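User: 2-oxoisovalerate dehydrogenase subunit alpha. Structure?
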Amino acid sequence: MTVLAQPGRQSAPPYADRAHPDPASLLPDPEPYRVLGGTAEPDGPLWLELYRRLVTGRRFNEQVTALTRQGRLAVYPSSTGQEACQIAAALAPADRDWLFPSYRDTLAAVTRGVDPVQALTLLRGDWHNGYDPHTHRVAPLCTPLATQLPHAVGLAHAARLKGDDVVALALVGDGGTSEGDFHEALNFAAVWRAPVVFLVQNNGFAISVPLAKQTAAPSIAHKAVGYGMPGRLVDGNDAPAVHHVLTEAIGRARSGAGPTLVEALTYRIDAHTTADDAGRYRSDAEVAAWRAHDPITLLERELRHHGLLTDTERQRAAEAGERLARRVRAALADDPPLTPAALFSHVYAEPTAQLREQTARLRAELEAESARTPDFLPEHAR
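Assistant: Predicted structure:
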């Protein structure tokens, strides 16, 4: 016999036994959390590693921007000025964890171990994503705003259901927080207590729109209260501080305590992309003020103060950056050998009937054109 629920009554939801957190415990830091310039004892090995990565990352951004202006890439969204967020996001998670980057997070992917040329493949207008996400546990660089956030929640929730000890770290800009995907991701993550950390790199502008025209909240970190998760506010140019906050949030997620929303206050020194004219919506004085708060300068000054950075170490960091720049220059010197039929590869594990039909049609058209014009395509591309 089937027993029907009484009208107006519902069975208890699966999370009904979960106590609601005290809203006061979710409020973010009243001021951005900082380490540099304070009384904290420096972690020498970590701070030096952060410094080396920052210097290398800055050189990477400079080199790729130059190559884009030379026509070697279609476009590049530089993270110059935001390197502390990028480096901390790559180093804080464990190897088994997943990173979900936005389109501006190429440096985070490279620092995580993705081959720099493969990480730039999409920005060259070349095929697909350019790298295997599973190799380094780095999801594809995501151009649509905030759509990577629900994916991160889904992976984290699925990992927990499977019993895998995995945390997802999802990166997004301040502009992405105005998207519906941001709300949906944080809402599901909090309800499910998914092991995921959201890092918002608040760099001041969503292209040309300042934060004040996007939200009236005291900070983006305050939005965490409405979802029932902790919010943290951190100085995004203080590399040790960002690393500390992310490490703490990842540990919290891994322990089963649920997600955290971290807002890192930073600044986009370069334009939105190499196709943007930032002079139309911000002043040179504003940029100069943020240059004085440069993440490399801040960390180098502190390392010098504690006697942890020698001229030799500084030179080694610069040389590492030059080696990476040379490698990128050499790899992007020539156009990639394109195979048009590869467009249909890696779309599905097993090609659909429609894809097979389209592949055959393209191959026939290429062969017909090559018959008319022998030099139309090189042999490998037919």
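Residues 23-273+283-331 form a domain with the Rossmann fold fold (CATH 3.40.50.970). The chain is about 45% helix and 10% strand.
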